[in-house]
Specification:
The protein is α/β, with parallel strands linked by helices. The protein has a single domain, classed as Rossmann fold (3-Layer(aba) Sandwich). Helix content is 42%, strand content 17%. The protein is built from 12 helices and 12 strands. Helix 1 links the parallel strand 1 (4-8) and strand 2 (30-35). The radius of gyration is 19 Å and the shape is globular. Bound molecules: nicotinamide-adenine-dinucleotide and 2'deoxy-thymidine-5'-diphospho-alpha-D-glucose (DAU). Nicotinamide-adenine-dinucleotide is lined by residues 8-9, 11-15, 35-38, 40-41, 61-63, 83-87, 102, 106, 125, 127, 158, 181, 183-184, 190.
Length: 338
């Protein structure tokens, strides 16, 4: 049956992939992509879908209460899948304010709007970073019961929004789910994040900045596997529940950077160790048992996913060249210690 789905942040990396995924899988659904088009959002990635009858783009700020409430009253969405956020940890360290406005206030505005039209489901896309950090003991993982101990302004803003989502379920009975995924990678990943930054810089034979000693560990998941998990939670998730999403692909940052350099046949001398990130979380690792019981399994290994991703960046140089030439270049020049 046809449903109206509001995807917030659908011009960004994961939201953009999710829009493509849903349009491909559910031609009977109407997809509304609401995005402010900050530095991280672009519509070039949607050129091939923008003519579809069941796709619509809305430029708006999720923190603009008046506009969001009247949009919900007009469209009466069935589902909300909420990706819109400031998402880059380094930016949150230099300028936390916008993270509070978008990630906390914006989420609360959306919750009020969703409550006012009684949506069937509100999926809040969160992150494993709300749990803080793990040490290097490989037998320890984040479960849904791990206490929230966010360490960066970004993760604190995401944890705050998670608590609001939980409260709207407990207080008003809003049918919500929270997903907490590990690090994503894949097509349309903004080149300020480690994997696309490394690919784009290595292709230009530019130095790759590795923070600290490069031994911090992240648990990598291909974005298509994340989209499939969100789809499953949207349709099958038990109201009020949190689902962790991850595929047991732990790598040190140095391993990731070396894998990319070696695949592209370049020299490891491109690696440059730079000043560490403030409050740099040591290790993230997800226990995905709960979502596996719901029926989810990742389809990519790190090896197959990184090969596909490198291939994609080679084939889509026009997309990332355009992104790199904008506001981002000024940001990189001001903030990089290279
Ligand atoms: P992104 O930065 O690529 O995209 C964010 C999008 O939100 C952009 O299109 C931007 O224009 C839009 N946006 C920002 N502020 C807005 C506002 N006030 N109103 C409307 N739109 C606004 O982010 P991403 O990496 O795709 O992450 C999407 C979501 O997934 C975030 O909530 C993030 O916390 C979460 N997440 C990301 C990862 C990851 O590895 N990237 C992992 C787990 C969870
Ligand atoms: O775990 C999920 C999170 O993953 C998401 O919630 C965030 O939105 C997303 O940005 C990502 O956060 P990270 O901080 O882990 O991702 P990032 O790509 O910025 O960094 C990955 C690791 O690489 C981290 O340990 C810092 C390091 N790094 C990063 C950059 C940009 C470097 O060594 N050099 C760099 O230039």
């Amino acid at each position: 049956m046809g449903k109206k789905i509001l995807v917030t942040g659908g011009a960004g990396f994961i939201g953009g992939n999710f829009v493509h995924y849903m349009l491909g899988k559910y031609p009977q659904y109407d997809i509304y992509n609401l995005d402010l088009l900050t530095y991280a959002g672009d519509l070039i990635k949607h050129k091939h879908v923008e003519e579809k009858d069941n796709y619509q783009f809305i430029k708006a700020d999720i923190a603009d209460r008046k506009e969001i409430i009247s949009l919900f009253e007009k469209e009466q969405f069935d589902y909300v899948v909420h990706f819109a956020a400031e998402s880059h940890v380094d930016r949150s360290i230099t300028d936390p304010g916008v993270f509070i406005n978008t990630n906390v206030v914006g989420t609360q505005v959306l919750l009020d709007a969703a409550k006012s039209v009684q949506v069937t489901k509100f999926v809040h896309v969160s992150t494993d970073e709300v749990y803080g950090e793990l040490d290097f003991d490989p037998s320890t993982f984040f479960t849904e019961e791990t206490p929230l101990q966010p360490n960066s302004p970004y993760s604190a803003s995401k944890a705050s929004s998670d608590l609001l989502v939980r409260a709207y379920h407990e207080t008003y009975g809003l049918p919500v789910n929270i997903t907490r995924c590990s690090n994503n990678y894949g097509p349309y990943h903004f080149p300020e994040k480690l994997i696309p930054l490394t690919i784009s810089r290595v292709l230009k034979e530019q130095k790759v900045p590795v923070y600290g000693d490069g031994q911090n560990i992240r648990d990598w998941l291909h974005v298509e596997d994340h989209c499939a998990a969100i789809d499953l939670v949207l349709h099958e998730g038990v109201n009020g529940e949190v689902y962790n999403v991850g595929g047991h692909n732990e790598k040190t940052n140095l391993e990731v950077v070396k894998a990319i350099i070696n695949t592209l046949g370049k020299s490891e001398t491109l690696i440059e160790f730079v000043t560490d990130r403030l409050g740099h979380d040591k290790r993230y690792a997800i226990d995905p048992t709960k979502i596996e019981k719901l029926g989810w399994r990742p389809t990519y290994t790190f090896e197959s996913g990184i090969a596909q991703t490198i291939e994609w960046y080679l084939d889509h140089q026009d997309w990332w060249e355009q992104i790199l030439s904008g506001e981002y270049q000024k940001y990189f020049d001001t903030h990089s210690t290279l």
